[in-house]
Amino acid sequence: MKKNFLLFNAFLMIFLICSIDAFGSTSVLRFTTQEFPPFSYQIGGAVSGPASEIIRAICHDMNYKCSFKSLSWTRAQIEVKQGKAHGMFVIGWNENRAQWLHFSHPIVKTQYGFFVRDKDRLEYKKPDDIKGYNVGVYGPSNTAKSLEKIKRKVKDFTIDISPNSEICFRKLSDGRVNAVYSNKAVGHSLISKLRLKNIKYAGLDKNLKYYIGFSQKYNSKNVVDEFNNTLKKLYFKGVIQNILSMYNMEAADIELADLENQNIDK
After folding, report:
1. CATH 3.40.190.10 occupies which residues in the chain?
2. Which residues, at least 6 apart from 4, have a Cβ–Cβ distance to it below 8 Å?
3. CB of 123 within 8 A of CB of 200?
4. Pairing mode, if any, of strands 199-215 and 134-138?
5. Which of 3.40.50.720, 3.30.70.360, 3.40.190.10, 3.65.10.10 is the CATH number of 2-109+209-265?
6. How far is CA 61 from its chain centroid?
7. How far is the first Cα of the chain from the last one, in angstroms, to the nearest whole number?
8. What stretches in the chain show pLDDT beneath 50?
9. CA 175 from centre of chain
10. Is the whole model's pTM more than 0.70, yes or no?
């Protein structure tokens, strides 16, 4: 009897240890991302940038462990869909993603707009301004979907999709496209990285916010709520703003986002 009791305790201990290390443990959160400077990038193989710093601050306050993996964007999403990671960042909201992801509070303000060569006189104000243009964009992506919405309004321009933003900006510099539709901060980061001297920003198309997304299937809503509550607490303490200010970025207004969501719910 004593031997059986000891065996039972041993098996129970092994089960508990495995449960702590298992994917579903609320003490560990695993995130995937992509190489997406200036929001997310690798330094010495470690995921760095403002988004990962914000997540680390939240996990620390929650007394959670968090880990990060940088992959192709397609692979990053697959890992979340398959339950190999809890969440991914940074992402824009769209209806398709809302079907399978819980969204964090917004973490950073950003914008989409058009880049052109420096000799182009375009000052983008409205969709008609790009009539006749061949516009490069990274896709498949939320950015490409936004450009496709413009295409539905203004049919007289063409879309040139490339598998990454670097290719888009190289094409623009070489004159193989007339413009690039991109996140403004990403565009400026790539222009600097690639040392492209003949490209300028032609104007804003839309403001947007970036979020962290969590798999609905493989996450407890309680964990996501705790993450969001901690994010909000750090926002009101100024922690989120301080992190983003070091990268010359502006935090999204969580209070305003809450009001907007309340109005949508009504």
Report:
1. 2-109+209-265, 114-207
2. none
3. no
4. unpaired
5. 3.40.190.10
6. 21
7. 63
8. 1-25, 259, 262-266
9. 29
10. yes
Closest alpha carbon to 227 in 206, 216, 212: 212
Between β-strands 158-162 and 179-183, what pairing exists: parallel, antiparallel or unpaired?
Answer: unpaired
Whether the Cβ atoms of residue 208 and residue 88 lie closer than 8 Å to each other:
no
- CA–chain centroid gap for 52, Å, is 10
Q: Which CATH architecture has domain 114-207?
A: 3-Layer(aba) Sandwich (3.40)
In terms of phi and psi (left: phi > 0; alpha: psi -120 to 50; beta: otherwise), the region of 47 is: beta
Tell me the CB-side half-sphere exposure of residue 154, using CA atoms within 13 A.
17
Q: Note the pLDDT tens digit of each residue in 84-125.
A: 999 999 999 999 999 999 999 999 999 999 999 999 999 999
With beta carbons less than 8 A apart as the criterion, state whether 180 and 168 touch.
Answer: yes
Q: What is the pLDDT of residue 108?
A: 97
The tokens for 68 are 């990060």
